[in-house]
């Protein structure tokens, strides 16, 4: 069976960002659930932001699909839903079955009601230490992509739809800041050991839309403001430098005062801006990010969803088996096993369903511009 995604048809800049994102997440989870120490230095501590980069990528890719379809009159809600579900559900439910039916794979944490896992509502009132807790980000995405196409279809019917779209994006960002302010007060005093911060802020759907909205904003620029998009993508290396600078500054703020009020309220929009600039740089043909193909990044990007689902519990399981997770050899073994498990899930589960998707609900070409494979 041939792979579903051919690297030659992908944009290497987006693949590099996606590979970087899963590396960040791996480093953070390795610290939080395997060694309980910053094995990879500050990268371990800030690695949670890999999820935010995933959000920005996904926001752009899915937003671009929807807006391009609406612009050309080819968008179909049933087709969008079918393609999205065939992309996300098979891998997710297979891993969920491992948690449910294979005791060695399930950790000792509490488990939420199964209906929350099955309906992508786990993140609602999620407590740290819950089994399969990293599925919270998938819940946020699925909830967002349930609402986004419905809103987009409604807004597209309005006179002044583009202006209304920008106002909705601004309102979403403002609502996120307000809700994080309220969540911070509810969780006060927030700290690493205070699970209320995660429940009220970190896992909460409306508090974590910033990067998704930033990605959709990029899609709006591309689909609704083509001349401006052309000018912006003409300065790819400047955009890349700005993205690195803004993201690094956001990282510094979170490392210094992760649970501070100002960082909680304004840090996520700042991080969203940095991630969006990086995505914009990846889409700029002349930028280094778009032109330099990092060896292995395309493959890691293709497998990243499967790696994300499996890596945390696999590493916990292997570390409990006696592997020294702090030794270089142990780190290499656990990292390699995570990639191998992701590849296996991709080949055995994801690829057949992606082939079915392309056979029965193929993508409709909405524009001549090349767009990377959607999330």
UniProtKB/TrEMBL annotation:
The Acyltransferase domain, residue ranges: 13-347
Keywords: Acyltransferase, Membrane, Transferase, Transmembrane, Transmembrane helix
Pfam families: Acyl_transf_3 (PF01757)
Protein name as catalogued: Acyltransferase family protein
UniProt keyword Metal-binding, yes or no: no
Species for this entry: Pseudoduganella flava
A molecular function GO annotation: acyltransferase activity, transferring groups other than amino-acyl groups
Regions that span the bilayer: 12-34, 46-68, 89-106, 135-156, 163-181, 201-221, 233-254, 266-288, 331-349
Recorded GO CC terms: membrane
Record has Acyltransferase as a keyword: yes
């Amino acid at each position: 069976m041939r792979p579903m995604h051919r690297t030659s048809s992908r944009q290497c800049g987006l693949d590099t960002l996606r590979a970087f994102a899963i590396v960040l997440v791996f480093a953070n989870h390795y610290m939080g659930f395997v060694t309980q120490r910053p094995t990879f230095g500050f990268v371990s501590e800030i690695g949670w932001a890999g999820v935010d980069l995933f959000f920005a990528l996904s926001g752009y890719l899915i937003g671009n699909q929807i807006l391009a379809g609406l612009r050309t009159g080819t968008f179909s809600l049933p087709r969008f839903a079918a393609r999205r579900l065939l992309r996300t559900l098979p891998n997710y439910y297979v891993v969920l079955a491992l948690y449910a039916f294979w005791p060695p794979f399930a950790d000792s944490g509490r488990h939420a009601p199964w209906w929350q896992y099955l309906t992508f509502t786990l993140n609602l009132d999620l407590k740290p230490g819950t089994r399969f807790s990293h599925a919270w980000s998938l819940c946020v995405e699925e909830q967002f992509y349930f609402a986004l196409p419905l809103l987009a279809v409604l807004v597209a019917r309005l006179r002044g739809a583009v202006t209304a779209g920008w106002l909705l994006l601004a309102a979403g960002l403002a609502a996120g800041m307000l809700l994080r302010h309220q969540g911070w007060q509810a969780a006060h005093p927030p700290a690493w050991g205070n699970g209320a911060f995660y429940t009220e802020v970190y896992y909460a759907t409306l508090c974590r839309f910033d990067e998704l909205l930033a990605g959709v904003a990029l899609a709006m620029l591309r689909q609704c403001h083509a001349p401006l998009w052309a000018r912006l993508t003409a300065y790819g290396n400047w955009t890349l430098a700005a993205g690195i600078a803004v993201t690094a500054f956001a990282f510094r703020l979170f490392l210094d005062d992760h649970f501070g009020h100002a960082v909680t309220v304004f840090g996520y929009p700042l991080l969203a801006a940095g991630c969006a600039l990086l995505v914009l740089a990846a889409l700029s043909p002349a930028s280094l990010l778009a032109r330099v193909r990092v060896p292995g990044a395309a493959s890691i990007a293709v497998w990243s969803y499967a790696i994300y689902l499996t890596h945390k519990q696999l590493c916990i399981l292997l570390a409990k088996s006696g592997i020294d997770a702090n030794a270089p050899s142990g780190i290499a073994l656990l990292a390699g096993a995570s990639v191998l498990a992701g590849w296996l899930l991709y080949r055995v589960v994801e690829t057949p369903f992606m082939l079915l998707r392309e056979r029965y609900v193929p993508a409709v070409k909405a524009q001549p511009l090349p767009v990377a494979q959607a999330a």
